[in-house]
Design the sequence.
């Protein structure tokens, strides 16, 4: 089965996502069963592994599938309606008194890491806009942000701005309206220890975010937080 590549059609990953969404909802793939592997899906539809992975990431974010070590990718069900509200706050944060400052360190054009190039489906030598920002509170850096912007949609950005997303809208005409996020904890690397000014072995919180406009991937961001200064509260209902 081949996907449509006509001008104006939905992105390939979105077409693939909708096919698997329908298969799950109509019972072709039942809850608890494994779906085919990524190489088999790529062969069936004549697409790249990157395209398959994007579709699977969206299905996973929507709660329709779950990757399990040693078991493959398992269907979790087609009627998942779980609303998760995530709120976060810096310990002793007092924005009223402007103790938290968000600052731009640099805006530059770079060859991105291989993972970012794969996500944007660009060549290894293609360049993207990279923005590094950080948050500082009471003179201490408590978070750092690495933003990579898809060159298909954004080729320039202001050197100074208050809102990244307003700046993206200004230069691309696209509004980021949905996200998928991965949140994990780890130990700070030597570079992160130096940047966040934390001792060896310190814990940090890492948030990897993909920002979409409609179904198009616009932004990939890696956020790193000082684990001693950050608290995240997740409420599920």
Sequence:
């Amino acid at each position: 089965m081949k996907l449509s590549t006509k001008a104006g059609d939905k992105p390939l990953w979105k077409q693939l996502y909708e096919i698997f969404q329908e298969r799950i909802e109509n019972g072709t793939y039942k809850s608890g069963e494994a779906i085919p592997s990524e190489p088999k899906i790529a062969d069936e539809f004549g697409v790249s592994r990157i395209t398959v992975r994007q579709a699977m990431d969206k299905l996973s974010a929507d709660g329709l599938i779950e990757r399990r070590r040693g078991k493959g990718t398992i269907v979790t069900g087609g009627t998942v309606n779980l609303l998760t509200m995530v709120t976060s706050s810096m310990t002793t944060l007092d924005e009223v008194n402007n103790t938290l400052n968000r600052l731009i360190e640099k805006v530059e054009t770079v060859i991105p890491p291989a993972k970012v190039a794969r996500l944007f489906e660009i060549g290894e030598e293609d360049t993207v806009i990279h923005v590094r920002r950080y948050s500082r509170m009471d003179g201490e850096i408590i978070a750092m942000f690495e933003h990579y912007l898809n060159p298909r949609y954004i080729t320039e950005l202001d050197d100074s701005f208050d809102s990244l997303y307003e700046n993206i809208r200004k230069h691309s005409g696209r509004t980021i309206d949905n996200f998928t996020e991965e949140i994990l904890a780890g130990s700070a690397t030597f570079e992160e220890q130096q940047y966040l000014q934390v001792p060896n072995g310190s814990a940090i919180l890492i948030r990897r975010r993909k920002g979409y406009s409609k179904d198009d991937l616009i932004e990939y961001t890696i956020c790193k937080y000082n684990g001693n200064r950050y608290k995240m509260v997740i409420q599920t209902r």
About this structure: Strands lie at 65-68, 72-75, 84-90, 100-110, 128-137, 140-149, 178-187, 203-213, 216-226, 230-236.
